[in-house]
Amino acid sequence: MGLQAPLWRAVTVFRVAALVYATILMLAGFRDFTRPWLGWAVLAAMTAWTAVTGVRYHDPAGRSRAWLAADLAVTLACLLVSNLVVSAERLASGGPTLPMAWVAGAVLVWALRGGRRAGGIAALILGAADLFLRGEITSATANGTVLLLLAGGVMGYVSRLTDDAETRMQRAVELDAATRERERLARGIHDSVLQVLALVQRRGTELGGEAAELGRLAGEQEAVLRSLVGVQDEAAAAGSADLRLLLGRYGSPRVTVAMPATPVLLPAAVAAEVAAAAGSALDNVAVHCGPETRVWVLVEKEPDAVTVSVRDDGPGIAPGRLAEAAASGRLGVAQSIQGRIRDLGGAVAITGGPGEGTEVELRVPLPR
Which UniProt keywords are given for this protein, alphabetically ordered (predicted)? Predict the structure, then answer.
């Protein structure tokens, strides 16, 4: 029904309340009317029109310009008939007209349908009619017109706000639906195509020969497909980066990268530092291990942290080797890996021994 539906219902409630007030005034003063029967007829017309517009405006299709024009015409007619029921002296002295505050209902629906400008036009038309009845500008005429203008302006402003809010809500719903569909497709691709490509890459490398070339091509296509799956919506990625895209470039026939199917979003600077630290760990494998050494990079996203593990099946690290390297001025691990992660508030764990391979675990807390 939209966000404006409650506003249209509120206008109907206002009209009913204003009608009750006009009825009370008529019961109190109908004996002073020049034509009491006409006053009761106008009240009956106002009652019927309140019911008709309440039903009509409940349906958005009934809020056409023709109906709004008819609404203003009926309201104007009920107001002008006051000249035949209420004496001229009483009107000139500031006495109430027959519909009283009920006339504001037309101003509200015009503002709700057409904005502040339309509400202002309706208020000026009714204000001019009130001036015609009283014959001169009085405090009652001025106050009534100003109140109608204020009502039209406020309702028009609220109407515009609800339109903007409804548009934003619709966009948010569409974006959420698109994101869910993209994640569903990403999970499907990750569970099927990417796993098959990874299997072809691994088996091709093990078999060698032409199969190795096929495995290499499969690895390249896996990296490209991961990049396509990881494309972010601009709104979601503003100021952030998907860690999967940064680490996916390290994938090769020798390096297997395993990542979640959904984005791993981090502030762009944090993601760049984590990727650089992982790259340094891979560089160490390339320098200190043989060309046949295989490496596995695993990315895990937890509720409060992101963990990147770089594990190889190389010769491992001898006890005390890292301390000796730092003492001799070789700070690749101490600065490029541990220093980067420490500056991000995270921690690095390096495990392994001779003949057992090495695992470097980078753990970075997620920003609140």
Answer: Kinase, Membrane, Transferase, Transmembrane, Transmembrane helix, Two-component regulatory system
